[in-house]
Amino acid sequence: MNLKDFKAGALQQEYKYKSFLPEMINHTFTWNDPQINTMLEDATRALGELNAFTMIVPNVDIFIQMHITKEANTSSKIEGTKTQMDEVLISKEQIDPEKRDDWQEVRNYVDAMNMAIKELENIPISNRLIRNIHETLLNSVRGASKQPGEFRKSQNWIGGASLATAYFIPPHHDKVNELMGDLEKFLHNEEIFVPHLIKIAIAHYQFETIHPFLDGNGRIGRLLIPLYLVSNGLLKKPSLYLSDFIEKNKSAYYEALTNVRTTNDIIHWIKFFLEAVIVTANSGVETFQTILNIKQDMDTKVIEFGKKAHNASKLIEFLYQKPILNINDIVEKLDIAKTTASLLVKDFEEKDILKEITGYQRNKHYAFSRYLDAYSSS
């Protein structure tokens, strides 16, 4: 099917409302739009550069975890959570009680992504894996009552207080299994010749239109993008996350998805998606370059610590994993006395590596600000 002839679906009369039933997508797509070709080339090149950095940055998995944490926070923010990045990086006990639900939702996203990457070693992207991710995402949070790990068995809607005032009503729940089965087949159909970036763009639109869960659809849909790229070898590590781009262009994102359903204009959506990949991949490359520069500077600074160089080196490696910490964290991780840890932190403050961020006399927290800024500015 040529993309210009794409038919998104049709409204179906239900009891007192109309749901949107999308067309099946498990077939080949072609296009005549030369801009898609150019953008696809640019996106593929940018993705390749990002992938190359993940293979040259030492101990890259440590830094990937920070990417995942940032993505978890941003993706959850799109859905209404209000946790800040510095809050995500400290323990639940240190979070204000009224913010702990939001904190848990973000941590669940991190756990869901890590679990999914591990499970990819044994099973492909599938409805089974998607349901497993969903179960982890909604574990012990506000969506825990909304059938974690199960496709919905009732009608849901987007926007509005009820079906009567809904902005968009996804397909009836009786159609969800069939539609998700078609989506799974599309992702794995080797007899259709669609570039992976085009395929996951179409799949993301379809997933969000099916809206197969009662809660968590947006986060799952965004999480599936890096999983698909990793599972198909476009990325060695899950290093591309579009939530930051989407959050900054939220209105355009929802408008592009809506236009497909109302006008069948999937070409505009695909261009939006490719632009998101290009911008995000280029930003990721800048982040990794900044990290390399920081690491080189830190390796040089360690030498300046003289007899304390061994502990200083261990603390810097720990800071890459936990860029906001307190003295007790250091004592436990480095297995040193509290006095030694305090003196080490004082040295780090004097060398402008750590900065105290609470202003308290007790229970102080210190931030590796330069490292955190590498992620906040990307």
Description:
The chain is mostly helical and 378 residues long. A 3-stranded antiparallel β-sheet has the order 3-5-4.
Give the arrangement of secondary structure elements:
Elements: E1 9-13, E2 18-22, H1 34-56, H2 60-78, H3 85-88, H4 100-119, H5 127-137, H6 176-188, H7 196-210, H8 217-231, H9 243-248, H10 250-263, H11 266-303, H12 309-321, E3 324-325, H13 327-334, H14 338-350, E4 355-356, E5 366-367, H15 369-376
Antiparallel strand pairs: 1-2, 3-5, 4-5
Helix pairs in contact: 1-11, 2-4, 4-5, 4-8, 6-7, 7-8, 7-11, 10-11, 11-12, 11-15, 13-14
What's the CATH class of the largest domain, please? Mainly Alpha
Describe the strand arrangement of the main beta sheet, using strand numbers: 3-5-4
Looking at the overall shape, the CATH architecture of the largest domain is: Orthogonal Bundle
- The helix/strand class is mainly alpha
Summed up, the domain count is: 2
Question: What share of the residues does DSSP label as strand, in percent?
Answer: under 5%
Strand segment count = 5
Q: What would you give as the CATH superfamily of the largest domain?
A: Fido-like domain
Integer average pLDDT: 92
Number of helices: 15
Give the C-alpha Rg. Answer: 23 Å
Distance between the termini: 37 Å
Largest sheet: 3 strands, antiparallel
Order of helices and strands: EEHHHHHHHHHHHHEHHEEH
Helix content: 55-70%
Q: What general form does the structure show?
A: globular
Q: Which fold name fills CATH's third level, the topology of the largest domain?
A: Fic-like fold
The low-confidence runs, each spanning 5 or more residues with pLDDT under 50, are none
